[in-house]
Sequence to fold (203 residues):
Amino acid sequence: PTAAVLGLVALLGLGQAVNGTCWQTLLATLAEGDALTAALGRAQAWRTMAGIAAPAIGGLLVGQYGARVPLLLDAAAYVLVTAMAFTIATRRVTTARGEGERPRGGLAIVRADGVLRPLFILIGLFVLLGSMVNVVEVFLVRETLHASTTWYGIVGAALSVGMLAGALLGGRLRGTDPLARGFVGSCVALAVAIVAVGASPSV
Fold:
């Protein structure tokens, strides 16, 4: 039933949000300084390359076997990630703080930074609207443009190719202001691209 599918998708999204945040935070506890920068770069590169391959593979699998086989493979992958998470051993290191001093984290970091505050709001809006576009994209490609599941997978892979190019370009930016301007500029470019996608006569 539609209600069950929507509920399960919402649950999946919630799990992915917690999962992704925990892995990123864990990485920050395993490395610091330049080593952390390198680790984040490698993790993002692998994630982006996987994002290029996954939609194309998913589209091919759906075209050959329907939705059941790729969903079962996804489920197996989540179980594997869970099993690997249990193999990680961590230990908490506490440091002495002054009386009444509390560690700053979460939204306190955002509130204290004049550049991060508006970017945080912009990122939230971007994620909200981007998620809406992801839903509409299926109907645009499959029903309006009458493309195959394979082509739908290729369209998804094109997004990750763009992300990889953006990551390489963004990695060249240095300093708060250039990074902030690069982020806002990329949002404008995405808006123009979405308009172009909506006006495309064919896949």
Notes: The chain has a mean pLDDT of 81.
